[in-house]
Amino acid sequence: MTITSSNRRRARDAGPSGWLAAPALVFFLVFAVVPLAGVVFLSFTSWDGLREIRLEGLASWTTVLTDPVTGNALLVTAKIMFFSFIVQAPISLLLGVFTAGSQKYRAALAVLYFLPLLLSSAAVAIAFKALLDPNFGLGPGLQVPILIQDWLGNSDLVLFVVVFVIAWQFVPFHTLIYQGGVRQIPTSLYEAAEIDGAGRVRQFLNITLPQLKYTIITSSTLMVVGSLAYFDLIFVLTGGGPGYSTRLLPLHMYLTGFKANDMGAASALGVILIVIGLGLALLLQRLGGKNRNDSQLEGA
Amino acid sequence: MASTTQLPAAPEAPAFTPATPRQSSSRARRRRPNLPGGLGGWLWLAVIVLPIYYVVITSLKNQAGFFTTNPMLPPTEPTLDNYKLVLENDFARYFVNSVIVTLGTVIPALFVSFMAAYAIVRGKGRFVNWTNNLFLLGLAIPLHATIIPIYWMITRAHLYDTLLALILPSIAFAIPVSVLILSNFMRDVPNELFESMRLDGCSDWAMLWRLALPMTKPAVITVGIYNALHVWNGFLFPLILTQSPATRVLPLSLWTFQGEFSVNIPAVLASVVLATLPLLVLYIVARRQLISGLTAGFSK
Question: pTM of the full predicted structure?
Answer without folding.
Answer: 0.84
